[in-house]
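question for whoever is on the cluster today: can someone run the full assembly for these? two chains, 575 residues total. i dont have access anymore since they changed the login thing
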Amino acid sequence: MIEFKNVSKIYRTKSGTVPAVQNVSLKINTDEVFGIIGFSGAGKSTLVRMMNGIEIPTSGELSIDGKQNANLSKKQLREQRRKIGMIFQHFNLLWSRTVLGNIMFPLELTGMNKSERIKKAKHLAELVGLGDRINAYPSQLSGGQKQRVGIARALANDPAILISDEATSALDPQTTDEVLDLLAEIKSRLQLTIVIITHEMHVIRRLADRVAVMEEGRVIEEGTVAKVFTHPEQDLTRKFVNSETDTGPDEDVKPVISELLQKYPEGQLLQLKFHGDQVKMPIVSEMLHQFPDLQLSILQGSVRQLQDGSGSIGSLFVQLVGNEEDIKGALEFLSTMRVETEVYKHE
Amino acid sequence: MNNQGLSTYFKFSNVNWSNMWGATWETLWMTVVSVALVAIFGVLLGLLLYETTGSSNFIIRGLNVLVALFVNVFRSIPFIILIVLLLPVTQTLVGTQIGPKAALPSLIFSAAPFYARLVELAFHEVDGGVVEAAESMGANKWQLIYKVLIPESMPALTSGITVTAISLIGYTAMAGAIGAGGLGQLAYTDGFQAYNNAITFTATIIIVIIVFAFQFLGDFAVRHLDKR
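^ ran it for u. tokens below:
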């Protein structure tokens, strides 16, 4: 278990002190996949650097399986680090070594003998689907393949914890999915705790059990992915969740929207967002019962399922035409039902 | 200076070939041995510079200043002066002041600091992310040096030693003028002082060939080492 207790990290620079992480308390359970999401500068990387002991907390306690990095000798810290595998945004492979050489690198550090090393590295190369490229150099590989090497290397010492630091941020969407598939496979095949640092919500949705949202060095929201997705409490969380679900109308719908806006200038164009159980409730029909004079046309709708099937997110584009008071009443009704609404104006 | 027509360059009958090959061998010996020793000392010094740069420890910072001062001083002394300056040191270290062996201390003292700067530069060019990755995998200082820093900067280290080797060839010729032997001495004594232009010319051609050979070897090695 990884436990942060009131951890802060403050950097001193010439222009003053910079609080990178402030009073973070988190528990990451053994064998779970824990996501940490936030924009750059939110303090995610500092959190990682404290986990592998490159940085020591300014105050508070960080313990990994009961041990605090701050109390370890240099040698103990090196041994501790070998139990933590890391994958990086820019892969950080040694260009001077082949795929096999890169995977063997952490094994060399522990002094494993050569024949065992080669055997294990070959096995790992197979695991990540690079069994036929073991003699290639990183420069001959695609981004996705490089990250596979990174993953194999991170797993070489049979780590108890795997930390993925923005591992898919430098990859295109398709390659990202490939890498996420591989991580999902590793999650199901191996017993290890995975910590995923990212700014992309779909990475969290695909893999994580629980998630913490970070902003300006603080954890502003934390919970199971299902809960955070379906009932986001903070604005930032909502932003992340919305970036993952449909944020705007389709290209196909856009011409219809502008036509409707011209035809019914008094009408309101709305995007409604339903989280969790709201998806299954007859909210829209209830609204029409209360305001029978309103006319409603549905332009586009979609429902997204979360990774573990524990919740869904719905999005609906509608146009309301009617008198001003009814529209105002309808919007109030939606807000009491806790449906997120966004009004679309002509561009 | 009599009888100095251009045609004298090509009077190869005046060349004592066995002396010429002997001098070539001496030049090669001085170059190869000094390059090898400069490579070793240069990497050590460069490493010292690299490791002590930007430390918060007062003593280590002091060491950095000291090493940097040593490097800068020896880099700025003109070679011909350095040889003369180091004559007593040479006498103590190798027991003689003439011959190829006696040239080694001054060759090394002048080229090692130069190469050390190139080594330091090469180490700083190594991707910081890779160094941090190795640290986060539990690499200790030595593993970091010989498994990451040196292999990852090998092309730069190699092109650096090539440049250094070529200037060392030039230095051996200069050292020849004060008795180190080799093609420089031959060109000076048998060529210049004996009005024998063919010897000077032949020695020049051989030195140019040696320089080209080193350059070619260096470039070849860099091309094969660089897998980026």
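summary bc i know u wont read the tokens: Chain B has one domain: 6-226. The mean pLDDT of chain B is 91.
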